[in-house]
Amino acid sequence: MRIEVPEALTASYHRTESGRAWLAALPAQAADFLERWALRPDGPTAHGMASLVLPVVRADGTPAVLKLQPVTEDNAAAPVGLRTWDGNGAVRLLDHEAGVMLLERLDASRPLSTVADDTAAMRVLADLLARLVAVPAPPGVRRLTDIAAAMLDQVPSAVPALRDPADQRLLRTCASAVAELVDDAGDRLLHWDLHYDNILAGDREPWLAIDPEPLAGDPGFDLLPALDNRWDDVVATGDVPRAVLRRFDLLTDVLDLDRDRATAWTLGRVLQNALWDIEDGETALNAVQVAIATVLLHRPEPEV
Hints:
CATH class of the largest domain: Alpha Beta
Structural class: alpha+beta
């Protein structure tokens, strides 16, 4: 059969020579794996942010999806993470080779973002995240301690790129928080990108996580994607600090995290995103992440 590559995916990769090469080889690669793994196409071709996704049926009649994407530093360990979780809170990996994964089929039309009640959705996410980070990270995944040390090395050159002195101060504050913990960065298996759209409805379980970017580290480093996703809902409450703290408190309660430590690693995640943005030419911090960092830095002390 002829594999059609969606235009949106083509747009993501046509800018670089390596991306164009991957796109050119993609139809033949997909056809090859359909034949080798005895898969029958079972619906229209879809795509993720950076991947081609083909609904298929295995030789035994089991529905699955064939996912193809270029191997990057972020996703290279995805098969290792999924094998380690073995379906416990995450989509089950059925087979894989470099850049290709055969996964159990979930309902892509029903991400967790379709759940209107934000508290209910956040609890589902928190429960899944608690299961995922309960697992020690296996060999073969990157370590937060190395990533954090590299971030700290970048801060002196990054700060002057920000125009606003307040942004510069916040970046230094985030860096100070990371510096205190860099030598004690944890050993849990992190998802690194768990938000509502990376959780899909399934048959085996009501909800399962997809698209991990596995990392060995502290669970506090995994909270920011949940805190800033569906931000319009936060703004619509009319009380951004209260809404952010409600999410933060729910996550830290369910994961049983020390809130000071979780705050510090969330600031670390803000730092990481800021450094990426500065590398891309931005001269101001992301307003949403500034809001979250500011709320957490001024989090009221618990009553004794």
